[in-house]
């Protein structure tokens, strides 16, 4: 798609307040594929004021009509799914098949789920002698990351619109083109002017202005824990609600009774998908000492198959970050069994699929989020040791447990300090709540729990 040279504010594409632009680079060949405005605090203020003005009418719109607009949005996104996939591939570097299967298909499904929820959700309920109303929280400032650039937009905007909120979206500067495509779809779906607004720009400028704006009632942010802390501090000073989906260092726990080969192969695939740029990736594989050597051999062989199959990471900055972590892993004594820090291609921001063995829990690569195609394999002595290691980071976003007996896996998963656990390779569920414990965030996305984040509660007693 051709990049717009303006902001989508109050139902139209409008010129930015300043001359600065952001170049969008294809990470596979390092070519500039578009330019978008670098929004300022003035642009954010204009967008927030439009959202505030549109709020009373949209909040009063019957849920069935809000559902109809979301259904139309889903249908338009579905009709443009090939363009969505091609756009994400161009700006993120994801292989086209993955873009089609995940980056396009998942947000379409999520949009559809909120169309259904908007029509069926109990916005009013009786509790004893009270009537409880679930009302829109107000103007939402949505700040989204680059790794799943449309999914994260839809996971915030769709429930906000279903709830009756209005929205100002600031997408990641690395991947703004699919957000512009989304704005086109919102417009075509007949969403009233001012209900959805798009401001492209840099995080420290446009993102900060949005988080700090006094007329924003909720900030929904997905990104790093460090930035999440800053947004939480800003929101706390204003007694403003936040929804934060932050970092992860998820454990893939393979119990001795599991199908080892399947658990290892699925685990490696999980880490390598989207070039490792997934906050919920199972980047720590925990294996019993008696099966450790076999698991390492299996993981190295599986990772080698991804050499030509994964795309680049999003930018030169991200490539340098990931390679730096690999070098640190070697320096701290971990053993490389696949990949390494050397760039596998002369052009493009590629990182070799990498597997580390002999990793101990205190190593940097076992504690910090790398956000690249890097797997660490850790040895445990017994189940208690496995649980200690699994829970031994500041994060608690996702994870996996494998066992021959499902009940055994569930019992272990229930003791993990994490928000979502896949049992024996359980499938992704777009209706299940997604979010983390500890420093992985506050609040939940997806399904009814995700809709509830955008509502506030009022009770009337009779």
UniProtKB/TrEMBL annotation:
Keywords: Oxidoreductase. SUPFAM superfamilies: ALDH-like. Pfam families: Aldedh (PF00171). GO terms for molecular function: oxidoreductase activity, acting on the aldehyde or oxo group of donors, NAD or NADP as acceptor. CDD domains: ALDH_CddD_SSP0762 (cd07138). Residues 13-459 form the Aldehyde dehydrogenase domain. The keyword Cell inner membrane does not apply. It comes from the Bacteria. The active site is at 245. PANTHER family: ALDEHYDE DEHYDROGENASE (PTHR42804), ALDEHYDE DEHYDROGENASE-RELATED (PTHR42804:SF1). Belongs to the aldehyde dehydrogenase family. This is Aldehyde dehydrogenase. It comes from Streptomyces curacoi.
